[in-house]
């Protein structure tokens, strides 16, 4: 398939290389001249955003979506969507896919209407749109992109994700199809859960230090990976079984927090957990 990738950074480059290895014709678009040069030096196809190019059937947007204050900066996204909108040719049944991380509602309320306004075409009739979050790790970008664990495709209608599903199928990872907003939300569940886990173990590392058992911290964390069901059972805690309850969890959370306070140790994370539990959440 003829595929254009807008944004040849960590995600766009790794994903594009994975697609190349599966026999697709990939063209990258990037605003950085040095990135274009290095791609062309490798014999790869690369263009600047203002350069007119042949239309293609799949456009994948992988540009940055930084956070300014608490707002998502969509300037690179809107420039990319404008380029893609100008290239859409209904006779090719094109699909536009955003792979950048975007907040829930962005696709339906902003990206699709923007594509329609600029192109004068209708979503669902002349072109299709899907959101497909990227899960690779920056430090293992190329390896992760070529051996993904799972794919998630969000679309307004199931069939709108068919083109990207076809491209992802040979990677032999499960492909899950959901609504647009669910796919956008999942990427934030993914990242905030990882952040939560890191913060929790950082708190526990501070407690170990205060107790003067820091030398054993890695050993006891490693045992926790084996002992806590939340670690060895990936689905633990994800079912709708209500707030933290049962015989041990509430009593031990409160006792541990009380003990921490008595040792002048604080854990805003555990305090929040206790408050949530008391409010029945
Ligand atoms: N880096 C990661 O590990 C990772 C993992 C998953 C998802 N993501 C998400 O993927 C998106 C891209 O992240 P990244 O790490 O690849 O960013 P990056 O900064 O590495 O690459 C972005 C590329 O887009 C180019 N670019 C910027 N504006 C452009 C424009 N208007 N037109 C064309 N090219 C433009 C930049 O020159 C750069 O080469 C972000 O939304 C990010 O949150 C990143």
Layout of secondary structure:
Layout (H helix, E strand, L loop, with lengths): L1 E5 L3 H12 L3 E5 L3 H9 L3 E3 L10 E4 L5 E2 L2 E2 L2 H13 L7 E4 L7 H14 L8 E4 L9 H6 L4 E4 L7 H7 L6 E4 L1 H31 L6 H11 L1 H4 L15 H15 L5 H11 L3
Parallel strand pairs: 1-2, 1-4, 2-3, 4-7, 7-8, 9-10
Antiparallel strand pairs: 5-6
This protein binds nicotinamide-adenine-dinucleotide.
Please explain how this structure is put together.
With 281 residues, the chain is an alpha/beta fold. The chain is elongated, with a radius of gyration of 23 Å. The chain folds into 2 domains: 178 residues, NAD(P)-binding Rossmann-like Domain (Rossmann fold); 91 residues. Bound molecules: nicotinamide-adenine-dinucleotide. Nicotinamide-adenine-dinucleotide (NAD) binds next to α1 and α3.
Bound molecules: nicotinamide-adenine-dinucleotide
Strand order of the largest sheet: 3-2-1-4-7-8
* N-C termini distance: 48 Å
Q: How many DSSP H or I helices?
A: 11
**Structural class by SSE content:** alpha/beta
CATH superfamily membership of the largest domain, which one?
NAD(P)-binding Rossmann-like Domain
Determine the CATH topology of the largest domain.
Answer: Rossmann fold
Number of domains: 2
- The best one-word shape is elongated
CATH architecture field of the largest domain:
3-Layer(aba) Sandwich
Number of strands: 10
User: Tell me, what is the CATH class of the largest domain?
Assistant: Alpha Beta
What is the radius of gyration computed over CA atoms, rounded to a whole number of angstroms? 23 Å
Beta-strand level of the residues, as a percent range?
5-15%
Q: How helical, in percent, are the residues?
A: 40-55%
Question: What composes the largest sheet?
Answer: 6 strands, parallel
The string of secondary-structure elements, in order, is EHEHEEEEHEHEHEHEHHHHH
Low-confidence segments:
none
**Please, what is the average pLDDT?**
95
């Amino acid at each position: 398939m003829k595929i254009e990738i807008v944004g040849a950074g960590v995600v766009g480059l790794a994903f594009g290389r994975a697609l190349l290895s599966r026999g697709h014709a990939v063209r990258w678009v990037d605003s950085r001249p040095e990135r274009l040069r290095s791609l062309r030096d490798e014999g790869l196809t690369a263009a600047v955003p203002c350069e007119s190019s042949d239309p293609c059937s799949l456009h994948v947007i992988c540009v940055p979506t930084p956070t300014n204050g608490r707002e998502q900066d969509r300037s690179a996204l809107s420039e990319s969507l404008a380029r893609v909108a100008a290239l859409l040719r209904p006779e090719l049944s094109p699909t536009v896919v955003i792979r950048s991380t975007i907040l829930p509602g962005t696709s339906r309320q902003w990206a699709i209407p923007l594509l329609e306004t600029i192109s004068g075409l209708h979503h669902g009739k002349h072109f299709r749109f899907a959101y497909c979050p990227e899960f690779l790790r920056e430090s293992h970008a190329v390896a992760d992109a070529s051996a993904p664990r799972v794919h998630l495709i969000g679309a307004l209608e199931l069939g709108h994700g068919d083109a990207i599903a076809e491209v992802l199928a040979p990677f032999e990872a499960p492909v899950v199809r959901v609504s647009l907003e669910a796919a956008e939300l999942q990427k934030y569940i993914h990242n905030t859960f990882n952040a939560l886990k890191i913060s929790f173990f950082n708190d526990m590392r501070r407690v170990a230090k205060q107790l003067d058992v820091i030398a054993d911290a890695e050993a006891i964390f490693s045992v926790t990976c084996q002992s806590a069901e939340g670690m060895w059972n990936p689905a633990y805690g994800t079912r709708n079984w209500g707030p933290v309850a049962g015989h041990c969890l509430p009593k031990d959370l409160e006792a541990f927090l009380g003990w921490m306070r008595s040792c002048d140790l604080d854990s805003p994370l555990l305090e929040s957990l206790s408050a949530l539990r008391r409010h029945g959440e």
